[in-house]
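Sorry to interrupt, but I need a hand with the structure work. Please put the record directly below this note.
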Amino acid sequence: MLFNLPGGDPAFTSGPGATADTVTLTLTRPARAQAATLHRTATVATRVLRMDSGAMARFVAVGEQATDIIFSTPLGCIVAERVHAVPSQDGAVVLADGVPGVLAAAGDSAAGAEVLTFTGRADMLWTGTPPPATGFTVVDTVPGADVRSLFAEMEKEAEAHSGPAGLPPSLLDQPLLRLTSRHESGIVEITGRVVAAVGALGLAAEPKQAEMSDYDMVRISTTGSWIRMDALFGTVYLPRPGGLARIPSPN
C-alpha cells in the first residue's frame, strides 16, 4: 500500500486435528493444484496486516468443498478470499498474523500439505455474524479499470495532501461510486474507504492473462443489510446504512 490509512460465538466443538486454541483447514483440492490461490490469499492477508496489525481472519464454510477466509480491515469493510478446503469449525476466528505464513508454506509445499493449522483463536473478538451466502441482488457491474483509476486518483491525493495520520477522513468518506438499482429505490454509495481497500489489497488488479480480460469487472450487489463487491481477485462486504450488519472495529 502506498499511503497510510487511519486507522461472539457460542461455545464450540473442535473438529479433527483442532484444539480449543487452533482451527484447521482440510484441503479439498491438493495444495499444488491451488498454489496460486493460497499464495494470493497469503498476500492479501499480509496487506491487511499492514493496515491493521491486530486484524482477524474468520473461516466460513461454503458448501462442502470450500471456505471463505474473511479478513477484518480498518476501512469499514471486510474482505473474503475463497480456498478449496473445509474448516474444523465453521465460523472460527483467529488473529490474522499467522495466516500468511501457513498459506504460503502450503502453496510452496512439494509434499502437498492436506491439513493447515492456524493458532491464536479469537472467536469472541469478531463482532456480528458473517455475510449471508445467498440473497444478494445485483445492482450494477463496473469495469475493473474504472476502480483502478479511482484508486490511482486516491494515491495522487495521498501524495499531495496526506498528513501524519494519513488521508483526511473527508476523502475516505466521500462517495466515489453512486449506483442505482432497477429492483429497489435509493442510491448505493461506495466510499473512498472501500475503493482504498479494493485497490490496496489488489482485489481488482489488472489481469496478467489476456483471456481473463473479459472478467475484469467489479459486480456490486446488495441485501437489506449488506453491500457486496465481487472483484476478480476477491470480495468485499460492507454494512449497508440502516441495516443490521456488524463488522469488527480496528484493533
